[in-house]
Structures are given as structure tokens and as C-alpha cells.
Amino acid sequence: MTEPLICQNYIDGEWLSAASVDTLESRNPALNSELVATFPRSAAIDVDAAVAAARKAYRTWRLVPAPARAEYIFRVGELLVKYKEELAQLMSREMGKPLKEARGDVQEGIDCAFYSAGEGRRLFGQTTPSEMPNKFAMTVRMPIGVCALITPWNFPVAIPCWKIMPALVCGNTVILKPAEDTPACATKLIQIFQEAGLPKGVINLVHGLGEEAGKPLVEHPDVDLVSFTGSSETGAFVGATCGRTHKRVCLEMGGKNAQIVMEDADLELALDGAVWGAFGTSGQRCTATSRLILHRDIKEKFTAMLKERTSKLRLGAGTDPNTDVGPLVNASQLQRVSKYLEIAHQEGAKVLMGGEIAHEEQFQQGYFFRPTILDVTPQMRVAREEIFGPVVTLIEVNSFEEAIAILNDTPYGLSSSIYTRDINRAFVAMRDLEAGITYINGPTIGAEVHLPFGGVKQTGNGHREAGTAVLDVFTEWKTVYVDFSGSLQRAQIDNREAEL
Ligand code: UN1
Known about the structure:
Elements: E1 5-6, E2 9-11, E3 14-16, E4 23-28, E5 31-40, H1 44-61, H2 66-95, H3 99-119, E6 127-129, E7 135-143, E8 146-151, H4 158-169, E9 173-178, H5 183-195, E10 203-205, H6 210-219, E11 225-229, H7 232-245, E12 248-252, E13 257-261, H8 267-279, E14 289-295, H9 296-311, H10 331-347, E15 350-353, E16 372-375, E17 391-397, H11 400-408, E18 415-419, H12 423-432, E19 437-440, H13 471-474, E20 475-483
Parallel strand pairs: 1-5, 8-9, 8-11, 9-10, 11-12, 13-14, 13-18, 14-17, 16-17, 18-19
Antiparallel strand pairs: 2-3, 4-5, 6-7, 7-20, 15-16
Helix pairs in contact: 1-6, 2-3, 2-5, 3-4, 8-9
The chain binds 2-aminohexanedioic acid.
């Protein structure tokens, strides 16, 4: 067994314990006896130190030319390539996702590094004519300042990279508060930024619990921006706090994503998509397929195909190369999923497969829930609320129009998908599905880093991560006028004098 990692905070270029001597534990969700790491139980006093370091570093970092800032991120990308396997193994042990997916998670970080690094030589603004003679007008992107980045455990490398990399290229300094389930992944990631040679204070790491470390960070008066990915409940607190204190805030929260399968779809293809979308990462993705909206003509056949395929999925530890579906991340997630199954029973949903904790000997030390298929009606809570586990609900519809209406009948709007061979339906779906992302003949998961990522309705607050859209999160526009006429020119007035 590998020795547990002793994680520390990283503040002003130093690895430090928290002010409190208390530490917390990160354990393998497939094998609870295995301690993966211990990490500091930070509090407001540690957050203060990190914010002060980030504030100090901001004064000089914002003046480093953007292409030079970006070169550090390029180096991080190269180091992520070097440490990819090590990080993937650690991730699999720490939060349970199968190795193949863990490698994909790190790869998303690598992609983000090389993409963000290129942005250092773009960060385009606009030039536009002035209405006055001998006057020049342009816009430039300015950094915001000190950014608090609060990240979840389900993509413990990719999501921090999505936030840290563009934030730094844009000239901000950051404090990362990672999820308490994945402190080891966060520590290893920040070590990589350190190895890339980032100046001290530009990137800081504060471990701990949401209540004790996350909350003071969000409330801190010297934090200018908060970027948060996680639950809708915590997001509501973050949004309200930032609203009250006039901080910029980017929120990525819940989803209840659906895949439509029409009667003209390639059913084998739709099946591949459904299984990957519903059970990849044990359904613990914001983008996971939680509802399958099936046309009545194919429902019976498709359900039989789905049951057959799902029954072959191998449940196991993420580190076992034969595993298809790993454990849930912790006991409370297991409890949450079990609770939803109780609700499903009470509401009269039909359990077509799974529906229970896996009790066999080899699963006893982990948080394993069997891949589950529920036949439901659209009003049931399991068809409306985010479960975040390996549970997919089947909803029958009579028409294309009904399929669209049911898909949209949710407060969330992150990802959506339709399988059809009808080009007209595909285009109507692209227009009418209320979601930040729509896939045609592909599953609801699989976002790429150079395109905007985010949701409509209650999934987010109008911002997008990734792509060039993320620059609008991490910069403010500055409008610059240069008057080279040598005299006072009054806009809207002096150029209208002749009209009198
Ligand atoms: C998330 O679950 O928050 O599209 C991120 C996907 C991944 C990212 C998911 N590339 O599923």
C-alpha cells in the first residue's frame, strides 16, 4: 500500500500547515481502510494569509506580459503530460473513477493548458473609429484581481485547470479551495504549478471544509471574484454573498440532463451514448445523462437493449483495469442515492435494474451502488431532481414535440442530446432545447476545452467556462480613447454644431 500523502496549504510560495493542528482524512472510496492523504483543517486565519499573498503578488503579476504569463501555463501543460499516469492513478484511488476516465480528466487539464497558453498571444480587444477627428478608440481586457476558485471532486484535475489557467493568463492571482474529497489531487496539481516556476503568491491553495475555509474565502473583502462549481445549494450561498458584496461570480451548478432517442435513431449508437452518458464516472458528472426520453415505438426494444448492456457493466475499484463503473465518492453520496431509490419506490417508479447498494464481499469496504434503471413518469422526483449517481430514468413520449417539451421541463439546463436521423428534427432540437450544450447523435457528456461550457436556467448565472468565453469571466473591459487633435473635442456636441 502506498504511504498516505501529507497535504499542506500552499501560500506565498510555501507549503504550510494550517493555524489549527487539526487535520482531515481522504480515504479510498473503493477501499475505506486505505488512507490516501491527510490535509489541514484550515480556517479564516489561513484564508486571510492566502488572500494577502495573492493580493501582494497581483501587483506585479498583472504587469507581466500576457505571452510571458502564458509560457508558465505551457510549462504546466508539459509537466501534466509527464505526470499524467501518476496523477490518474492517484485520482482513481482518491475519488474512485476508473483509470481510463482519470487519464481523460488529466488530459482535459493538458488540453486546457495548451489552449490557454495560446490565448496569451491573443486576448484580443477591438479598435473602432471615433466619431471625432484625430481621435482613436479601442478596448483592452484587464485582469480582475484576486480570484477565489472553489472546485468539486468529480473532475479533480480538469475543473481546477479550467479555472486556474485562464485566470492566470488574464493576469489575475488565485486561491484554490478544492473539495475535501480530493485534497491529494489538488496538492499534486499545485506542486506542478510550483515546478513550472510560477512566482510566489500567484497561485495559492487552501484545504479544508466548505463551512470553515470556503465560506470565509467567499466572504473575504479582498477577494474580487469567485468561480464556483458544485451543488445548487452551495451555489445559492456563493451567489447571494457575492451579490451582497459586489463581487464578480461565476457559478456552475446542478443539472438534470436528458438524451432523447427518436424512433428513427440508430439504436445501437444511441445505446452506446446512453450507457456512457448515464454510467460514466458512476453518473457523478454535471453533464451525466439522468433521463432517457424514449419514443414509444422504440421504447420496449431500446429498454431491453439497455438492460442487457447495463447488466454486463463491471462494478469495481477504479484502479482495477477491468472496472467499468467505480464507487461513489463517499458515504453521504451513497446515502443520497439510496434515499432517491426509496423515493422512487414510494412514488411507484419501476426498478428495471439495480436499485441497491452492492453487498458482495468485495464491495463491503467501499461505496458501491449498482447501475440502476428506473421506469418513471415525468412528475416523479427522481425524474426532476439531480441524483448524481449511476441512476438513469426512462420516460416514454409519443412525439418529437413532446420529447422536446419534456426535456425542457426542468429548472436546469446544462447538457442535452438527441439521437435521430432526421436532419430537420436535429436542427429544431439545436434551436429549441433549453441547455447550454446540445449534442446531436452523441451523449450528454464529452465537452471539449476550446468550446464554451456552462448551462442556462438554474444551472448557472449566465457565464461560460472554457473556450474564449471564459475570458469574459476573468477580465473586465477597459475602453480607451486617445485624442491626438491637441484640442478639447466634445463628443455628441462639437461634431453637431454645423447642424444648427
Ligand atoms: C462536470 O461534470 O462538471 O463533458 C464536467 C464532460 C466533461 C466535463 C464534465 N468533459 O462530461
